[in-house]
Amino acid sequence: MINLDNTTMKGNELLVKMVFDRWNSLIQNCDTLIDSLSDDQLLREIALGIGVFMFWAI
Fold this sequence. Notes:
Elements: E1 2-4, E2 7-9, H1 11-36, H2 39-43, E3 45-47, E4 50-51, H3 52-57
Antiparallel strand pairs: 1-2, 3-4
């Protein structure tokens, strides 16, 4: 058992916490990347006349 912030966690609970923490970190990194792109970059075609956000909407 591991004690984090006065809370005792078992192995499975710690694994789930680590997975969700990593997931949230990846989402934040993705948000930062998208926020840093200009409108022109976001609308640039990536394949066969399909724009990035048009592709995501399909």
